[in-house]
Amino acid sequence: MKYDFFAYLNRLKHIKRWALMHSLDSENVLEHTAQVSIIAHALAEIKNAYFGGKVDVLKVLLYSQYHETSEVITGDMPTPIKYMNKEINKAYKDIEKGASLKLLETLPPELYSIYEPYVLPDENSEEYIIMKCADKISAYIKCVEELKSGNTEFKKAKDTILKDINKISREEVKFFMKHVSPRFNCSLDELE
Predict the structure, then answer these.
(1) 172 close to 43: Cβ distance less than 8 angstroms
(2) Over its length of 192 residues, how does the chain's per-residue pLDDT go in tens digits?
(3) Is-contact 168 139, C-beta < 8 A?
(4) Over the Cα atoms of the chain, what is R_g?
(5) Which residues of 90-128 are buried (b: 16+ CB within 10 A; e: fewer)?
(6) How far is Cα of residue 33 from the mean position of the Cα atoms in its chain?
(7) Closest to 62 (Cα-Cα) out of 47, 45, 40
């Protein structure tokens, strides 16, 4: 028997992000996934260490690791299209779910139920919400990096994403944005 799930996921490195934008530094979904995992881990640990949280850090990491799994089939849908209206957003969510189910079927049967909760997570859980915040922060950091390199194409996206982040009333996000995110504007020589 052949099981293709992991070979599919390896192909996330071929899915380009920010397709509608001119990027000086191209980003693929696998790189994005790694960055979201790092940020989500930090947010979960900040929540637990500073704000009395009881977040399941492993679950946050696994949600992060598999949050873009469906894109190996669907590709990366640009945000303006994905959220153009409720009907398009719902249709796209249905497509993502169908793609995720198709991918889960490429696992050995004994692993299906182990991976399913991470590929199709509980979107109301604390851990999922933290991961989504990390996803948003990752997009903000991409904009900061492009602007730092002189690419003004990302100015409006940065402003829009930062406005969305500032609306998030989560202590760990505010902590990260105050104490961590400004350092992404620094050059290597400016980091201590």
Answers:
(1) yes
(2) 899 999 999 999 999 999 889 999 999 999 999 999 999 999 999 999 999 999 999 999 999 999 999 999 998 887 778 888 889 889 889 999 999 999 999 999 999 999 999 999 999 999 999 999 999 999 999 999 999 999 999 999 999 999 999 999 999 999 999 999 999 988 888 887
(3) no
(4) 17
(5) eebeeebeebbeebbeebeeeeeeebeebbbbeeebbbb
(6) 6
(7) 40
- 50 to each of 36, 60, 96, 171, 176, how far by Cα in Å? 21, 17, 35, 9, 11
> Would you state the structure tokens that stand for residue 59, as one six-digit string?
């679950």
